[in-house]
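Q: Here's a chain of 416 amino acids. Please give me its 3D structure as tokens.
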Amino acid sequence: MSGREFDLVLFGATGFVGALTAGYLARAAPAGTRIALAGRSSGKLDALLRTLGDGAAGWRTIVADAGSPADMAAMAERTTVVVTTVGPYARYGLPLAEACARAGTHYADLTGEPLFVRECVDRFHDVAARSGAKIVNSCGFDSVPSDLNAYLLHRRLADDDAGLMTDTTLVAALKGGMSGGTVDSGITQMEAVATDRSLGRVVADPYALSPDRGREPDLGAQKDHALRRAGTVDPGLSGWVTTFVMASHNTKIVRRSTALLDWAYGRDFRYREVMHTGRSPAAPAVAAGVAVALAAFQALGPLVARGPGLRLLRRVAPAPGTGPDERSRANGHFTMTTFTRSTTGARYRAVFAAKGDPGYQATAVMLGESGLALALDGERLPAAAGVLTPATAMADALTGRLRAAGFTITTERAGA
């Protein structure tokens, strides 16, 4: 991609997460990195640029509308990578993903929408594979920790000659707010399912993002709902675990990764994600309440997401483009621990942890470093092109970048 005007364009820079990502890039991008901020309003872009200080000296702005394929094509042709925070992606993201796939331009987003990823795969994977573009979905809290933990466990088992992965569970422990954009994406997906009930089968299928559904192993039901004692996941855990709100999407991304790697994690790889609710006397009740609420939401959401129900949802949900204040973002944190047992009986775990609200502050770091990896790391990246996942597109390069940014990312053997 030599000759491109920019190394990285951040699209949606004036939105809440976009501005956080712009601030991170201004602090973290190497000197001389050619960056542009893009969005619909020239005035808002210029105002944001003035707040970013010396780290953004020399940056440019691009006025572009997500609804204009011509704008998206022109922007994609000017840069090595486009990083986008403009969602819901099912509503706004396809023209940009297509433009990048056709231009041979790398792309990174924050989607937690499996229907959008599936459409990207169906429409743009072959196009991007031919052009050399890496179209990388889910480069924030959804689904970088999940995807890298599983990938790094696979690598660690291979290095230790310890066999392949079998039963694998991620346990999420976190403190943070719910993104208005994430809620809006969820409502948009419910609207789509309400309109076309066949899409519900895609959302429910654990292998919905597979590159070859017919080659997937038959491992029986792998449901995302959970309610059980934490010790059933690993003997070292206590308390209770319950359904994790993003499990349905993250697990599909992880399964796509192993399939893109020719099922390298193992043909008996069973994967799920749960959330830890603590060890207090109230933990079982909290776990049960979360599990029941999320199950009801999944079952009834498409019925509510129409007519008066849809208007009520949008009225009570946090508004897109909003989020917690700086103090609340700084007080957030998360620890994602993935436990696996290998075909030789060995137990391993991976830890991915960071300070900062996972959906905002930490996501800005993960998205920013994903963009920098795609823009600058060249030969350190896997050769694969197409619609990829964080692990299959950036693997060791992104892991190294996030460790350097202060994230804890480790793997270890946990005993027989």
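Q: Can you summarize the key feature?
A: The first helix runs from residue 16 to 28.
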